[in-house]
Amino acid sequence: MNKSERRQALLRAARAVFSEKGYHEAKVDDIVALAKVAKGTFYLYFPDKRSVFGELVRGLFSRLGGAILRVDPSADVEAQVKHNIRAIVAVLLDDPALTSILLSHAAGLDPAFVKELRAFRQEVKLLLERSLAEGQRLGVIEPGDTELYATFTIGALKEVLFENALEDQARPRERIVTALYDLLRRGYLRMDPAPGQPALRAEPGPPAPGAEPGPPALRAKPGPPAPRTDGEPEAPALEDAAPARAARAERASPPRARRARPRGN
What we know:
Layout: H1 3-25, H2 28-35, H3 39-45, H4 49-67, H5 77-94, H6 96-103, H7 111-138, H8 146-166, H9 173-185, H10 241-252
Helix pairs in contact: 1-2, 1-4, 1-6, 4-5, 4-7, 5-9, 6-8, 7-8
């Protein structure tokens, strides 16, 4: 086994020990026992437990970065976003111990390591911020504060992962993916139809009180009157009807008789 393979073996053993015992309870002796190497061999590669844990966290961050793909707005946006969520959830759930420590407040750890964990969390947040900013440029993310968008998203995902770790029966991954996508779709995701697809149809509003359920009736706009074909003049508009009726009545009334003037004797 060469040096690179030995290093990877120690990292795999450390990952298993951290997953089983957590960071506080894990010991270098546990790691070397699982890796079947002498304790001195461990120190050839890592100065202490914290350094090997930091190496694992950096690997986790690298996998997160590789899991996020650039969204093509001309293709199926929903499928691409779900792919990204599914990949991120898989990376985090495959390393439950690392994820819980990375996303937690790391209470009880030495200050230097807490500072390092905060730096890792900030890198994850910046990675998501850059992805959201790119989404805004492509038109698939609503305008707004990408820093807060990233904070809300990480917070929601963190709570789901914590609950998943505490429950006896973990939630199915696809259920988490679907629920998180639905949450984002009603939030900052802009799900406009791709070019060439029909526009979304607005849903009808609630029916009027007492109205029977059913599709809303369409109200046609009044158009110009149809031309007459019998030679008669077209009917006047409503606003002209009263003067027309008065004129017809005046024409139809009989002439008044003239009163004879009396002649003088």
